[in-house]
Amino acid sequence: EAFARQMAANPLKPAEYDTSPLAVPPRGLPLMPASEIDGASTVSENMESDKVGSGRPLTGYNAQNESLDRVRVDASGQVLTTNQGVAVADNQNSLRASLRGPTLLEDFILREKITHFDHERIPERVVHARGSAAHGFFECYQDLSDLTRASIFSEPGKRTPVFVRFSTVAGERGSADTVRDVRGFAVKFYTDAGNWDLVGNNIPVFFIQDAMKFPDLVHALKPEPHHAMPQASSAHDTFWDFVSLMPESTHMLMWIMSDRAIPRSYRMMQGFGVHTFRLVNAQQESVFCKFHWSPLAGTHSLMWDEAVKIAGADPDYHRRDLWESIEAGIYPEYELSLQIFTEEQAQQWSFDILDPTKLVPEELVPLRPVGRMVLNRNPDNFFAETEQVAFCTAHIVPGIDFTNDPLLQGRIHSYVDTQLTRLGGPNFHEIPINAPVSGVYNNQRDGMHRQAIPRGRVSYEPNSLAGGCPFQAGGAGFTSYPEHLAMADKLRGKPERFADHFTQARLFWQSQSQIEQHHIVSAYRFELSRVQTQAVRERVVSLLANVSMDLAQGVANGLGIRVPRAQQVVKPLEIAPEVSESPALSLFARPGEDSVRGRRVALLVTDGVEAASLHSVLDMLAEEGAAPRVVGARLGVVRADDGSVIHVETTVEAMPSPLWDAVVVPGGEGIQLVLSSYGQMVEFVKDQYRHCKPILVLSDDPVLLEAAGIPVDMPADEPDPALIRLRAERSQEDSVTALAVSVASFREALARH
Ligand code: HDE
Which InterPro entries does the entry link to (predicted)? Predict the structure, then answer.
């Protein structure tokens, strides 16, 4: 039953789990048939693979999957072989000179197996080591050829395959998902004109203005070199020492200390290209562009206490959420919007659009939605796909170009360079997950791990022996935007407007709701309490004094210090910001769709629970695509009040409170007393309350709530929208109505996060 419930949202699921192995597996089902897409392009929706070994169905069309089929391996029904394809007779025993004698050097089967194992690891990414990824597609809403000749924007309905990797920055490959950190949001578009990588973050600005400072930033952030602590955390002396001496990081720090840095899910965070890019059309006209991804599920975050507890209870929390959502057919979806502006506009503004510590407020340049991205397929193999994927900012396509943002310019170099070590040579573009679907034809040759077999004797251009092929594409190929550059002195330095470090930090602070401001103060207090050097703490507060005295005071209070004099600004500037408040910067600006899809709800049970009311909540949740689970003190079964048997799916120990989005406390004679006799049940409910999660109590009896210290009698004029208690009614009819009202209120609270 539980299985059926979980799978209800995805009709392809049972086949994937081989519960009906004899059924012909459905394959290549598009999310939306081409015929239903307005003005659908010629991209064939029903292209399917005949090489998908065990009949694993394809969920949604993705052309990249076809090229990956070439290398997919399925061992069903096959004998075990060596890497040379020789069948192995015995995989248990090495070859020995007599049963108790030494192992023989000639045992090539053992040696091959061990040697390969010895070399299984590759270096992890120097930053963004911890990540999770998924396949999907991007679908363009409209023809944007007036702005860009990028082929993915050429016609409405056109779909381009994507592979997206989300990540944390500081932690090592095995670190926890819910640490306070910026999240990477890297998208590889396999366009029909080559690969385009939009390697972004979930925060629209960055710590530093120049690539020159990146190694310093990362060295300060990573575990301290003498004792390699702390893991995946910025709460230590070297990080705060560095950033307190780099006033340009103030704006980014505001974001990092906000709830943006502890997202509820990869499905519930925005993505940003960060830098200003250029769009270039076929007439070589160019506009500036900022890229924004907005999640359909809305932007939602965890509470700090919750994030800390999740890190222990399930370090894979975000990875699991992404994986399970896709498996259940709740496909993460994001809308791509552009902020378009001209050189002339940008020149008027109080900030420099080449400065990556600045954003362009949405109130100044509104977002223009241009397409949507749906992630509808999990990778087959973590290493082959998620680990080996190589995103590079240098991967752009005709129609998109760089700007002179000095951080972006440095990145153009770094990403290709880093793969040479990480993936072991210059042929990483041939690793299947990195290979473009549009074909690669050039005269580059050889190198480590070469896969392609170039034919013929010509590996130079121009040539006549191969008929001149491959030949230059001319205007059809990539041409850099011919930006006019005035001759000036070669120098190391920054434009003047880069010197304003506080105006936008203040904008961010002022645009937050009260509760978000409160969380920012708490985060600074936490991080700086971990810092051991008093002078560093004070220096950070002296920076904050340039942003807001309220903020500086709040942080100083937590540190038991007075607010020091505001840190002197290097170059005082008269700044008249275009907007002084930007509601779009609050997490509340994007509540997302009104839906409870994928929300995890714990239904607590013990012997004697009232079956009828529990079932009505369960039915609602299952019907709406949420993930309700029966949670008990131990596995096995409990007997409900009507004599029916309820199977306990998991326990409060195995899946403690922080892992759930909401809880349902059951009704039943004397049940509350029984539940409150379990310490873990009391803690469970207490944490649900502490983390602001909806609590539905199917009983008028407040014993469990009281045991958890939850205020049970809220003033009638100020009800708690997330604490829903079912009142006892006299008549049967009134009870039914009361239950329906409570279940509806619970649904609403759950959908609002
Ligand atoms: Fe990165 N960054 N970065 N970065 N970055 C890497 O590339 C780098 C920056 C971002 O899922 C590395 O393949 C420099 C900004 C993401 O595989 C490396 C500078 C933004 C990912 C690198 C920056 C990012 C990376 C490490 C300053 C947001 C993960 C492994 C000049 C716009 C991609 C790798 C994935 C990864 C360098 C700053 C986003 C070393 C030098 C700003 C999402 O090349």
Answer: Catalase, Catalase_AS, Catalase_clade2, Catalase_clade2_helical, Catalase_core, Catalase_immune_responsive, Catalase_large_C, Catalase_sf
pTM for this predicted structure: 0.92
Q: Is 128 a catalytic residue?
A: yes
In 606-717, the DSSP E strands lie at 627-632, 636-639, 645-648, 650-651, 662-665, 695-697
Complex ipTM more than 0.90, yes or no: yes
Is 214 touching ligand 1 by the criterion CB < 6 Å? yes
Tell me which of 10, 62, 201, 202 is the catalytic residue: 201
pLDDT at 13: 44
Looking at the CA of residue 201, tell me the nearest atom of ligand 1.
28
Q: What gap in Å lies between CA 604 and CA 665, rounded to an integer?
A: 6
The alpha carbon of 232 and the centre of ligand 1 are apart by a number of angstroms equal to 16
Q: Which residues of the chain have pLDDT under 50?
A: 3-60
Q: Which two tokens stand for residue 18?
A: 């081989």
Using a 6 Å cutoff on CB, does residue 406 contact ligand 1? no
Whole-number Cα distances in Å, 115 to 87, 109, 189, 388, 594 = 18, 10, 36, 20, 54
Ligand 1 lined by 125 (C-beta under 6 Å):
yes
| Atom number, ligand 1, closest to the C-alpha of residue 208 | 27
201 classed as catalytic = yes
What is the reported pLDDT for 72? 85
Q: Ligand 1: which of 358, 415, 417, 420 to mutate, judged by most atoms within 8 Å of the beta carbon?
A: 415
pLDDT digits (tens, 9 = 90+) for 244-271: 999 999 999 999 999 999 999 999 999 9
565 φ, ψ to 5°?
-60, 140
Residue 604 vs residues 650, 684, 685, 747, 749: alpha-carbon distances, Å: 10, 10, 10, 17, 18
Query: Mean pLDDT across the chain, nearest whole number?
Result: 91
